[in-house]
């Protein structure tokens, strides 16, 4: 499916009837041949925006790193070691093959309970495409763990899309997918948590503030703007208070959410 090297419909069905961890273990050898991998265009946009606004960092953390699509970006942004964390051993195995570099560490862990050894270790944390796997009630634990992993002044950055208008066919597609997943999880165990509409900016901002972050956003103008002038994608920047390390001043203004 998707490409000749990608998973078949049967393989995707087996994944969907598994747990999140087992499903990604099964999908991992072919994951990068699916549209689920974070596009290079998004990675490049985030990297450029962070480099322009912040300069470089010392150590970096990729939360739910999957097969390691974001680790190359982190290595370029960070002078020191970078770490990828994921629950799936299969995805981490693929990441290890893609990034054999000595200064890349891979840790198998649940992002809702990051290991204590990661505390106060990073200046930058990122995450791409994983937040649909966390129910709203799980976000506080997720954000608290990232907050603890960052040094004072450290930054948690991730892209977040504008709301999809109900008139768009995409809205109906993702609404239908979420509804199907809710039915699946109501009648089948183990659950496979993956929803597209459970991560709205307002609620996410509130949970980040409650976790102790200072929050702002920057437009990712690489993806254009909607008819009302608002960006199609923003980079959410959640900073752990503290002196941190000296940063270069921003080169462009952030926009209010």
TrEMBL record:
<dbReference type="InterPro" id="IPR041698">
    <property type="entry name" value="Methyltransf_25"/>
</dbReference>
<dbReference type="InterPro" id="IPR029063">
    <property type="entry name" value="SAM-dependent_MTases_sf"/>
</dbReference>
<feature type="region of interest" description="Disordered">
    <location>
        <begin position="238"/>
        <end position="257"/>
    </location>
</feature>
<keyword id="KW-0808">Transferase</keyword>
<dbReference type="GO" id="GO:0032259">
    <property type="term" value="P:methylation"/>
</dbReference>
<keyword id="KW-0949">S-adenosyl-L-methionine</keyword>
<protein>
    <submittedName>
        <fullName>SAM-dependent methyltransferase</fullName>
    </submittedName>
</protein>
<keyword id="KW-0489">Methyltransferase</keyword>
<dbReference type="GO" id="GO:0008168">
    <property type="term" value="F:methyltransferase activity"/>
</dbReference>
<feature type="domain" description="Methyltransferase">
    <location>
        <begin position="61"/>
        <end position="154"/>
    </location>
</feature>
<dbReference type="Pfam" id="PF13649">
    <property type="entry name" value="Methyltransf_25"/>
</dbReference>
